[in-house]
Design goal:
Blueprint: E1 3-8, H1 16-31, E2 35-40, H2 46-57, H3 63-87, E3 92-95, E4 102-104, E5 113-116, H4 119-126, E6 130-134, E7 137-139, E8 145-147, H5 153-163, E9 168-173, E10 194-196, H6 197-205, H7 213-222, E11 226-230, E12 238-241, H8 243-249, E13 258-274, H9 279-289, E14 294-301, E15 306-314, H10 318-332, E16 336-349, H11 359-369, E17 376-380, E18 383-389, H12 393-403
Parallel strand pairs: 1-2, 1-9, 2-6, 3-6, 9-11, 10-12
Antiparallel strand pairs: 4-5, 7-8, 11-12, 13-15, 13-16, 14-15, 16-18, 17-18
Helix pairs in contact: 1-3, 2-3, 5-7, 6-7, 11-12
Bound molecules: aspartic acid and magnesium ion.
Magnesium ion is lined by residues 9, 151.
């Protein structure tokens, strides 16, 4: 029998009513003839509540104990969900991460799954059970409880789907799927029927928070078709899959699949640094040592033998990076440090860009026509990002959405049967 892994997020199991609704959806899937493994998050808001409890008690709770505490959230929802299934006469068994054989490394707050020992689950499935597994948790080789990082239930679901060779991993949440842009900003945004893992990774890392990034990486690596859909509607959502699979049905990809933005950025420039070999490494060394992630980087030479060195970081890391640069400015005899933490990054993403030149030009012209200045640019095969003044974020996203006619959805879609 084909197996489906279904994951329901915190808002989907936020109260008893929702849990009963989820139970009904699972029963419908089971009645369609599938074996079902369900992964659930803690009831909405519960993980935050537990974190607050810990922090009220201790400034810096020990990660082992924090993991033990946070793992309780998911234990509540799996047990309740099984009870809801039992009420309808269905066989169901709940499992914690460790009972389900999810073995991780020992980084308690953001552990990585190393293997999944599926015997227990497989046996339960063979006995006709719906298997309900607590998301976001595992056990290390010493038997300690670990957690997989915020949003980690997505990763639990994908790991189980890979280990059990599931037909599809379905992530049910409170949004309909992945859109061409954030529908709260662009009312014409269209739901994407499908998207590649690569594109989804870019969108996720650019701040479209539908899926945990690690889950997308995992699904891409093991080629697990991943569906994102709403718990509260019957819309089939968005299928995240690999390009060949899509190409079977679609001759050509749209040039641009989606537009993402991230307001959570800051920019720092070290001006007039006397140039020398390896200067970029000398500047960025202390930054990475301080665990600050650098995103875009630009180095400009001037005729006078100095360089200007600019990079962007997460806004939370701005103060840290600024302190480091001020120190470096003195050490390296640079002219000045200038910073700007009111910037945003807008990115166009699409695997179709590979075969369509001129997208960057159109992007820059569109923004220029709206009076939006571009402060930095970076590109990859399937992405073009620009840094702009934060206050123009909405305007920029809307203008680009219109310019690339994304409201029409993937217009170059070709249906061989149609
Ligand atoms: N309950 C955890 C969180 O809130 C894990 C998850 O929901 O995926 O981050
Ligand atoms: Mg989530």
């Amino acid at each position: 029998m084909a197996l489906l892994v279904q994951k329901y997020g915190g808002t989907s199991v936020a109260n008893i009513e929702h849990i009963e609704h989820v139970a009904q959806r699972i029963i419908n899937t089971k009645n369609e003839g599938y074996d079902v493994v369900v992964v659930v998050s803690a009831m909405g808001g519960e993980t935050d509540r537990l974190i607050r409890l810990a922090e009220d008690l201790h400034d810096n709770p020990h990660p082992r104990e924090l993991a033990a505490l946070l793992a309780t959230g998911e234990q509540v929802s799996v047990a309740l969900l099984c009870m809801a299934l039992h009420k309808h006469g269905f066989k169901a068994r709940s499992y914690t991460g460790w009972q389900a054989g999810i073995i991780t490394d020992d980084s308690f707050k953001k552990a990585r799954i190393q293997k999944v020992q599926t015997e227990t689950i497989s046996e339960a499935l063979n006995e006709g059970n719906i298997v309900v597994v607590a998301g976001f948790q595992g056990v290390d080789s010493n038997g300690n409880i670990t957690t997989l990082g915020r949003g980690g239930s997505d990763t639990t679901a994908v790991a189980l789907a890979a280990a059990l060779n599931a037909h599809e991993c379905q992530i049910y949440t409170d949004v309909e799927g992945v859109f061409t842009a954030d529908p709260r900003i662009v009312s014409e945004a269209k739901l994407l029927k499908h998207i590649t893992f690569e594109e989804m990774l870019e969108l996720a890392s650019l701040g479209a928070k539908v899926l945990q990034i690690r889950a997308v990486e995992f699904a891409g690596k093991f080629q697990i078709p991943l569906r994102v859909a709403s718990t509260f509607s019957d819309c089939p959502g968005t299928l995240v899959t690999y390009e060949e699979k899509i190409k079977g049905k679609v001759m050509e990809q749209p040039k641009v699949s989606g537009i993402a933005f991230n307001r959570n950025e800051a920019r720092l420039t070290l001006l007039g640094v006397p140039d020398r070999l390896g200067i970029a490494g000398i500047i960025l060394g202390p930054v990475s040592e301080a665990n600050v992630d650098v995103d875009m980087i630009i180095q400009n030479d001037s005729a006078d033998g100095t360089i200007d060195f600019t990079f962007t970081v997460n806004r939370e890391d701005f103060n840290k990076a600024n302190e480091i640069l001020k120190k470096l400015a003195t050490e390296l005899d640079a002219r000045d440090v200038v910073t700007d933490n009111k910037i945003a990054k807008i990115s166009l993403v699409g695997v179709g860009m590979r075969s369509h030149p001129g997208i960057a030009t159109k992007m820059f012209t569109t923004l220029g026509n709206e009076g939006i200045g571009i402060k930095m640019i970076s590109t990859s095969e399937i992405k073009i990002s620009v840094v702009i003044d934060e206050k123009y974020t909405e305007l920029g996203v809307r203008a680009l959405h219109a310019a690339f006619r994304l409201e029409q959805g993937p217009t170059e879609e070709f249906d061989p049967e149609g």
